[in-house]
Design goal:
single chain; binds magnesium ion; globular; alpha/beta; 8 helices; 21% strand; two-stranded antiparallel ribbon; Spore Coat Polysaccharide Biosynthesis Protein SpsA, Chain A; binds cytidine-5'-triphosphate
Length: 253
């Protein structure tokens, strides 16, 4: 029984807007990727970590990860054009004796060790694809185009000047059955291999690529299970998220 964790870190962090790739951006003096890797390595159920990173920053990733002295082997590989391609590149290097794979985002830097442990336990208990999920706090609607005449039709004589910026609500899903999906996600290794092989044609195009691994498994028609997520596993996307992460770290460590 060997568990590998793939820690995606090959994104550029366009929305964060830092000169460094997002995963190298410091939070309380340590790069985001180190925060995430440390929590994975210390959960007690991860035997090795593979980090797909931007090809032009491999040495920097190797240097910060080896300096962090995580206590489990960490390898850095060149990522791909999309998150899906980066996971596939890392998965191709995972040794054959690994039977469970966690896939986690360096951008979810403060996801606690207990969350990785919970996900691996659920996979080891026989669920072959497991994601953490948290309830959705807002009312969520489905939208479609408003159409050129939607306003005029209902209010005769008005001009649809707002039409350029408004959308029409087309669905009101029941919030109680919705979950926001986080990482780390856990998989039976053979199933994850199969899901990536089947979805490989999408990986080269960021607009077609899967945004997580569980959706590739679901596309095979295989069940995906949800375990309770953790508020600290929120994804750092914008400067505001980074500021919130700093506060979280000060409060909870
Ligand atoms: N990722 C990756 N390879 C890519 C794109 C993204 O490994 N080609 C990783 C990121 O490093 C991140 C995770 O996927 O850990 C989620 O992506 P996101 O939050 O979108 O990060 P970035 O793509 O770096 O940010 P942005 O979209 O703002 O550029
Ligand atoms: Mg991105």
């Amino acid at each position: 029984m060997t568990t590998a964790a793939i820690l995606t870190a090959a994104g550029s962090g366009t929305r964060l807007g830092h000169v460094l790739p997002k995963a190298l951006v410091p939070l309380a003096g340590e790069p985001l990727v180190v925060h995430a890797a440390r929590r994975l390595a210390s959960c007690g159920v991860v035997d090795l970590v593979v980090v797909p990173a931007p090809g032009d920053h491999l040495a920097a990733f190797e240097s910060v990860l080896s300096a962090a002295d995580l206590g489990v082997p960490v390898t850095v590989v060149t990522g791909g054009m999309s998150r899906q391609a980066s996971v596939a590149a890392a998965l191709a290097t995972v040794p054959p004796d690994v039977d469970v794979v966690l896939v986690h985002d360096a951008a979810r830097s403060l996801a606690p060790s207990s969350l990785a442990e919970r996900v691996v336990q659920a996979v080891r208990a026989g669920r072959r694809a497991v994601v953490p999920g948290v309830p959705v706090p807002d009312t969520v609607v489905e939208v479609g185009p408003e159409g050129p005449t939607a306003v005029e039709d209902r209010v005769p004589g008005t001009v649809a000047t707002a039409g350029a910026t408004a959308e029409l609500v087309t669905g009101n899903p029941d919030r109680s059955v919705l979950r926001s999906v986080q990482t780390p996600q856990g998989f039976d290794r053979a199933l994850l291999d199969r899901a990536h092989a089947a979805g490989a044609h999408r990986a080269g195009d960021e607009s077609l690529a899967a945004t997580d691994d569980a959706s590739l498994v679901a596309a095979l028609g295989e069940p995906v299970h949800v375990v309770p997520g953790d508020a600290a596993a929120v994804k750092i996307t914008t400067p505001r998220d980074l500021a919130l992460a700093r506060l979280l770290l000060e409060e909870h460590g």
